[in-house]
Amino acid sequence: MPFNTELTRRLGIAVPVVQGGMQHVGTAEMASAVSNAGGLGIITALIWPEPEGLRQEIRKCRKLTSKPFGVNITLLPALVPPNYDAYAQVVIDEGIKIVETAGNSPGPVISKLKKAGCIVLHKCTTIRHAQSAVKLGVDFLSIDGFECAGHVGESDITNFILLSRARQTLKVPFIASGGFADGQGLAAALCLGACGINMGTRFLCTVESPIHHNIKEQIVKAQETDTALVLRRWKNTTRLYRNKVTEQALKVEQESKTGEFSEIAPYVSGKRGREVFINGDPEYGVWTAGQVIGLIHDIPTCKDLVARIEKEAEETLREKIGLFTTSAKL
Asked: Which InterPro entries match (predicted)?
């Protein structure tokens, strides 16, 4: 295989491509398809309301692949927070050695995982947060640019700047997340100092992705302008696919006199978003998508997608080397 990066060496994968954790999507079938293709598949822990559900999904994934895969644990604000410690314990009990973490106050979970010998990839949207994660002992940082789907942070720093800042300041290896869909993007990320890429929306639009085919077709039709940012008023800025419900949520956010979250809550319901992926109606509820939807034009298998990215990246890097010449100046 042409790639030999810190990510491929440490994780035991062939292609430096990670399928990021995605709510409602990161199942055993999805993760195993990516891992079997040579990348790193990831199960999303909080798809299951109870930790035991995660345990069964991990065991299912092991039957579907002999390759490395990981688990995502994302810590987000909630009226009744999940028992993150219990999810982490299941990961440890089941012998999972690669964990993607994200969200608020991850210290206790990361500490628990590191004591158990896990490799931790922590997702950050700012260099400041990345430096804090380094102090917690994470092994890799997933640097998440403003282009990404879902929670974009509040700093609005795009990846071209964010990755270069990571290269300049971080002593821990990092992968690039947000805005990646092809081998040219992988090649660019490697040139900017990353040791791999993380893809969410691109893997959402694959044959094995467990969402309705209509939504995949909607992604293929979409342009890079078809996303919107909501919840900035509550410092929980989230990038969503721009549909009728998203527009209604934005209207409430902009016009609310009270600023009470309860006014917008019905429009940003995760339950309705999940139904979108089941019933195939892209207008039924809000769902996350990155600006990278403008770069997605087909619905391949994970095997074909990862192989294509590998080939494109190798060809791009070899081609760009050809731009350099040692010939004497005239």
From this structure: Aldolase_TIM, NMO
Question: Pairing between strand 238-241 and 150-151?
Answer: antiparallel
Please tell me the pTM assigned to this model: 0.94
Residue 300, CA distances (Å) to 71, 196, 223 in order: 24, 21, 19
Contacts with 247 (C-beta within 8 Å, 6 or more apart), sequence order: 228
User: Do residues 83 and 46 lie in contact, with contact meaning Cβ atoms separated by under 8 Å?
Assistant: no
Whole-angstrom distance, CA of residue 156 vs CA of residue 169: 19
Q: How far apart are CA 322 and CA 99, in angstroms?
A: 38
pLDDT tens column, 179-223 = 999 999 999 999 999 999 999 999 999 999 999 999 999 999 999
The whole-angstrom separation of Cα 216 and Cα 206 is 8
Across-strand partners of 240?
228, 288
Given the structure tokens 């399928």, which residue do they identify? Answer: 19
Helix (H), strand (E), coil (C) string for the chain: CCCCCHHHHHHCCCCCEEECCCCCCCCHHHHHHHHHCCCEEEEEHHHCCCHHHHHHHHHHHHHHCCCCEEEEEEECCCCCCCCHHHHHHHHHHCCCCEEEEEECCCHHHHHHHHHCCCEEEEEECCHHHHHHHHHCCCCEEEEECCCCCEECCCCCCCHHHHHHHHHHHCCCCEEEECCCCCHHHHHHHHHCCCCCEEECHHHHCCCCCCCCHHHHHHHHHCCCCCEEEECHHHCCCEEEECCHHHHHHHHHHHHCCCCCHHHCHHHHCHHHHHHHHHHCCCCCCCCECCHHHHHCCCCCCHHHHHHHHHHHHHHHHHHHHCCCCCCCCC
What digits encode the pLDDT tens for the residues 225-260? 999 999 999 999 999 999 999 999 999 999 999 999
